[in-house]
Write a structure and sequence with these properties.
Butyryl-CoA Dehydrogenase, subunit A, domain 3, three-stranded mixed β-sheet, 14% strand, alpha+beta, four-stranded antiparallel β-sheet, single chain, binds flavin-adenine dinucleotide, Butyryl-CoA Dehydrogenase, subunit A, domain 2, Butyryl-Coa Dehydrogenase, subunit A, domain 1, 3 domains
Length: 388
Amino acid sequence: MPPSTLIEENEHKTLREAVAALGNRYGRPYITRVTREHAHPDELWTEAAELGFLGVNLPEEYGGGGAGITELSIVLEELGAAGCPLLMLVVSPAICGTVIARFGTDAQKRRWLPGLADGTRLMAFGITEPDAGSNSHRITTTARRDGADWVLTGRKVFISGVDRADATLIVGRTEDARTGRLKPCLFIVPRDAEGFERRPIDMELKAAERQFELVLDDVRLPADALVGDQDAGLLQLFAGLNPERIMTAAFATGMGRHALARAVEYARDRTVWDTPIGAHQAVAHPLAQSHIELELARLMTQKAARLYDAGDDTGAGEAANMAKYAAAEACAKAVDQAVHTLGGNGLTAEYGLASLVTAARVARIAPVSREMILNYVSHRTLGLPKSY
Ligand SMILES: Cc1cc2nc3c(=O)[nH]c(=O)nc-3n(C[C@H](O)[C@H](O)[C@H](O)COP(=O)(O)OP(=O)(O)OC[C@H]3O[C@@H](n4cnc5c(N)ncnc54)[C@H](O)[C@@H]3O)c2cc1C
């Protein structure tokens, strides 16, 4: 077996090439235009769906591709490398699709998975709360029983794509009948449910997907809004969070590759002395370092995705955290270096790199910040004591 196929099989390479071909037909200018017009990348979304890319990880019997997060992360990375990442891939098929496919009732699977797989339905995911932030154990969105119904009360913040999503998968808590303690549970809240209010947050981020603050004011939901088993909430939640981290790593690696490629192109041509600026090691070496760091991050992402797809949730948890950390750091550095390589042009709208400086920070903060990953590795991997 040649070394290259040792790491990535031919079918994955073929998938990469096919997604890259689609992404390159749209490219960065498409996303820039859509964002400027406050529109959405619907054409790209639809075409990616028709090619089977969006639901590649979802079960075949519900219209998906029957593959895994390995394949979905390839889709996101390649679209990102082409300059047109689809953030909602992280949320809709990766988190929500996975949770419903693994833990949903048959009725929930029939109702949601075919639409999530063919891209005609979209689901957002809401866990972050204003007073909990990184400490998700502190969330207070609560679900109480009222007859057969559930009634949800609480607030969420920074939830992406709620305006576009048919429903949001909300992480709430229910009271354990035996212990009285609150335990996490997942609820499907339709976009227009009474008492479910959203307010867009004015972000500096230039992206088609918007973030929202949500208020759930006695939102009444039918019994089947609860996903899966009330007693397996935490397990279900973690089943969705690992794909989220792996996909964020792919998002960051794609963006980093895109920025790096623009910088390399520029450094090859731009000449202000006798040779192109890329011949100066002060320009070339940081770009080479970025390439190495992005490759390493991609390797860790592949490891995390494979562990996850093989059913090793614990092994995948550690690898997914490390991959997300490495990819976010590599992306932020690659984007920063790319902007610098272009000199003044790095800050022009024409070259479109400066806006990535903000976008690259997202992967450092969400879905879990770099410090929380360092905490995880300190405590779980290295066995160091906790300060909180
Ligand atoms: C563009 C964007 C999209 C998002 N989309 C979604 C979404 O769709 N759904 C969703 O649920 N959430 C979403 N989020 C929210 C995101 O997951 C949170 O912003 C993130 O978890 C951090 O929470 P916080 O912003 O409250 O920061 P805080 O928790 O307030 O943290 C602030 C700072 O303190 C540090 N810190 C906190 N605790 C510790 C500690 N114990 N040790 C060391 N440092 C610490 C953090 O690392 C960070 O640097 C999104 C955020 C952004 C920016």
